[in-house]
Amino acid sequence: MVNDLLLSRTTKRPSFTVARGVWNEAGQLLGIIIAGILPEKLDRTFALHRPREAAVSLIDSKGMLVYGHPTTEYTWEQRNWLRLYPAIGEALKGSDVVATVTSDLTGTDRLVGFTPIASIGWVSAADRAIDEAMEPVTSSLIWQAGGFLFTSLASFLLALWISRTIAAPIEKIHGHALALGRGYWDNRVEVSGPKEAQALAEALNWMSAERKQAEEALRESEELYRGVVQNTTAVILRVDPKGIILFANQRALEFFGYSIDELIGRRALGTIVPERETTGRDLVAMIDELVAAPDRFRSNANENMKKNGERVWLEWTNSGIYDASGNLKEFLSVGIDATERKRAEEQLEETRSRLSVIVDSIADGFYALDGEFRFTHINNAALSYFGKNRGEMIGKSLFEVFPEVPGSVFESNYRRAMVSGRPEHFETLSVVATGRAVEMHAYPGPGNLTVLFRDVTERKRMELALEAAINEAINEKNRLEAVMEALPVGVAIVDTLGGNVKANPAYERVWTGPRPTVRSVSDYAAYKAWRVDSGELLRPEEWASALAVLRGKTVIGQVLEIERFDGSHTFIHNSAAPVLDAQGHIVGSAVAVMDITDRVEAEEALKRARDELELRVQERTAELARANEELRSFPSLLIEVQEEERKRLAVELHDSIGQTLAALKFNIEHILGLRESGKDHEAVDRLKQFILILQRSIDETRSIYMGLRPTILTELGIIATLQWFVREFMRLYPKHHVELEIGVEETEIPEPLKLSIFRISQEALNNISKHSKAEWVDLSLQRSGSGIELTIADDGVGMDLEYIRSHASTARSLGLTIMRERAEFTRGSLSIESTPGEGTTVRGVWQLHKSQACLHP
Fold first, then answer.
1. Is the pTM of this model over 0.85?
2. Do the Cβ atoms of 857 and 520 come closer than 8 Å?
3. How far is 521 from 543, CA to CA, in rounded Å?
């Protein structure tokens, strides 16, 4: 196939391409060979000896000049000969055309012959100046006219002279023609006499030159062919019918490792073809069949061997070469190295085999369907479930093997997956086992569908039983919450960080007033308490609940004076015990708080009364001594009462939390034993019997993980959380513009820091909304050296830090203290810079170390 002339976009030079398909013996297209040709390079092929002022040209199917000789520079527009010379149109339709045209370049009249080239749809043209073409005819006419005038005067003499003038050139031309017939193409003939004789001699000289040029072109073509054969990357051999190697190109010699003397003349079998492949294939028989019928092996792949014994694979294209009688003369073999591809195919087959073993070893059913829903693979689990063997299914249609499938949810879901290209997941009843439920997963691929399935009948039954148990547990939960609401003792559930998860009304009454949210032990700083015995301020980590979740200690009877959130003071009896999971890990704590203000006040009243009695009745020593003894014994009694109260609380905690967990463990072990014994119904009944205990554990577990940290922080991360919070803040407070700048990756921020960063940002922005009157706020989270730096800066009214520190009880001071303690608790530092009228900057810095990954606030 020859394409028309094109103008290259890159080089701006005209070119055309020649393409040829490469086919195998089955007629399948293996590839296409394309050659790009620059027209000016055709001179060596088409350059011919021409008479003076003669030219030859090639024109493509669109009328564009492809090649002209002699070579002339043309613009792209000048190459459009169909526009310049419309006579070309008739030639393109298949007719020979002779016309007189005026050259667009020289302006001279030319006699042109256009001849169609039917095989490629192009036209060839030969032209010559009209003056040159008509010169012999004109000269002849002039001489004839002169002869006619002189005939009446000397016809005999003129006839004699003319005969002698013509005879000598004709004899010379005759001798030259005989020399040409014998192959002497280098000779030229020069004659004098009539123009016709000279024209005939010129024609013979032209034919001699043309033949010589043709032979030279043939020789150059052979050299070009030899260059292509020798320089190609393919192995090319010519072999006679006896298997003797007649020719090998340079690539063949280099590939097999032989010199030309070592390879030419030797039999291919035993030299480059082993008698047997490593696969066991008999190559002796294959060679015999190839020699007998080369066309049967037009495309063939077999193992070959090099001189050093290395085995290699080649893909051969073989063509028989026959003589005029149709007998096989030799055959041409062109080989491409396929060793790497063969190895890759073997590795792929090995991988497929391993994959097949893996698929057959999985417990779930698996099968694969092609685009026509025919089984292409099925594992042992599926065969066992269907009660069939592979011979009954492989290659068979799904609808043929299972007549129940057409029109079912199986067909609709499978077809939907194949059309949409998206997986389909569904549960339905089996078409094989009556009353059995199956879970199906259909995964589409290019022209195929992979299906995984499992029998979920028992799971569905357990789900129904569990649903009933859950409903019963909800009822029990409601009853438990009602009991908790009615308890006179304050009770709270605390998570692993020390944050409050749930508290009953009695607990809320103890603290009176809106309590600050507690999410970690550091938040305990907002709860003011002093030890009754020493008057020392209780630090956050010294609270009973903090000791329970941080150290796993059970603390009974902390006697504290607290400042409630309405500003009043009271005395409490505070206790806490850790809650452990099945592995013994701390998952939270249970806290009990009892108001003992009346008891403490009674103790204080007794003490005051004792002191007054000592002052007022010193004279009554004996009586006072007895009274003193009674008064001294009274605190001991109070201590006993206190210890009894502690014991009572310990027993209550033990009987509730401890017994709940113990009962849960015992019953689970018992149910597992029933399940292993196959007593599923008894296991379900037992499950219903301890639903209250189970629900209590579920509630505690749910409370623990729901209170660990904000949901958005857990699901999206700190960066997304800050982006969300800034949007919400500006929506609520449109007068404040917050510019968020993030210069750190989510993965660079340790998990334990994320909550502190969020809470500090939250507290800072809340302070800004309440106090700063700022219009612009910059919130920045950046990587700073080996650490992370959080900065919140506003252009508000600022604040007097000294005044705020001196009034530590203010809400503003508490907020700043909480931010600082939160930063320090996560091993960071927090600084606040502010001047009245000049805005405020809050900066938190955390240095990251290897140990940071182990940080658990």
1. no
2. yes
3. 9
